[in-house]
Amino acid sequence: MRDALRLLPVIVRNWLRTRAQLQLEILALRHQLTVLQRQQNRRPRLTSFDRVFWVWLYRLWPGCLDALAIMKPETVVRWHREGFRKYWTWKSRVRGPGRPAVSLEIRNLVRRMSRENPLWGAPRIHGESLKLGIGISQASVSKYMVRHPRPPSQTWRTFLRNHVGCLVSVDFFTVPTATFAILFVFMVLRHDRRRIVHISVTVQPTASWVAQQIREAFPWDTGPRHLIRDRDGIYGATFRATVAAMGIEDVVTAPRSPWQNPYVERVIGSIRRECLNHVIVLNERHLRWILSSYLDYYHRSRTHLSLAKDCPEPRPACPPGAGKIVAFPQVGGLHHRYERLAA
Predict the structure, then answer these.
(1) If you placed Cys at 126, which of 138, 231, 241, 246 could pair as Cys (CB 3.0 to 4.6 Å)?
(2) 201 DSSP β-pair partners
(3) Position 321 in a domain
(4) Parent domain of 49
(5) Which residues lie across from 281 on neighbouring strands?
(6) How far apart are the first and last CA of the chain?
């Protein structure tokens, strides 16, 4: 009687099931038995057909999970999800040639624009491409853009170019004379066109004298925004007070770091190599005359690499048919300027 009562729920459940469900359960059990018989003394290994069978059975009858004995129900669910993804991947496959590929030249141009203009997005690059007559979609531009690892920022070269117009440098250099005296030359250089805006010579410089040179270099309201100098003791309290009163920010380089003030150091080297190393200075007046002659050559005739082979004061190019080439000596014949003159 007790065993009958235990079997009663099973009998009722089987009675309530449809005949189709019973047949599916029998099919599931028989399949598991086949798998176990196929693998002797080893862990059951399921083939692709087995996985497809259980996925199909799960789609047809989700209750098959209750009849599983050789695997976990979660395994069948995972197989079903993988099959779903593979089915729709196959369903969405490309069946035709699709859009024509973007040429390598256009792709390189998009990457170049993206690297040279880190502040530009896909719409701006796309608009620039349209102005060049390039037919490319904005989505393609976005696809081939360079991905910056951090928020876009301008380069240091761009930053310096945007601020070079308000920068000047000052420095001293010494010149020995024929009588073994030492003359001090003070120079003020603008960075934008490498123009020497002021140069002066003295035997004994003082802070008051240097402050007066700054006032002469920038009369009225022509002063720059920043002034770069080294830590020479000649730039005393008087000089600093004068610079501050003119609204100029005094930028001091690190100790023993001439590379932090490279432009004025480069100009001083040019003056020595191209002029002073080839003459003997007699006195202060003679040095002023030599420097005046060299500055005229430096500003109006000498070409500069940093100015695209132009002069601080732009020098027009002579057309080939303008006439015969004539040489004009400058700096006492140390250098020459060449022009075309009509016969």
Answers:
(1) 138
(2) 185
(3) no
(4) 2-90
(5) 177
(6) 138
**β-pairing verdict for 167-176 and 182-190:** antiparallel
Domain boundary among 45, 62, 90: 90
Number of structural domains, the chain? 3
Same domain for 84 and 113, yes or no, is no
The pLDDT of residue 35 is 63
Euclidean distance between CA atoms 235 and 254, whole angstroms: 15
Ramachandran bin of 265, using left for φ above 0, alpha for ψ from -120 to 50, beta for the remaining angles: alpha
DSSP string, 239-290: HHHHHHHTT-EEEEPPTT-GGGSHHHHHHHHHHHHHTGGGS-B-SHHHHHHH
Q: Please tell me the least confidently modeled range out of 85-89, 93-97, 141-145.
A: 93-97
Is residue 99 included in any domain, yes or no?
Answer: no
Cβ atoms within 10 Å, residue 179: 8
Residues 181 and 238 in one domain: yes
Give the predicted TM-score (pTM) of the model. 0.58
Do 301 and 337 form a contact (C-beta atoms < 8 A)?
yes
Would residue 337 count as lying in a domain?
no
Mark whether 235 and 128 lie in a shared domain: no
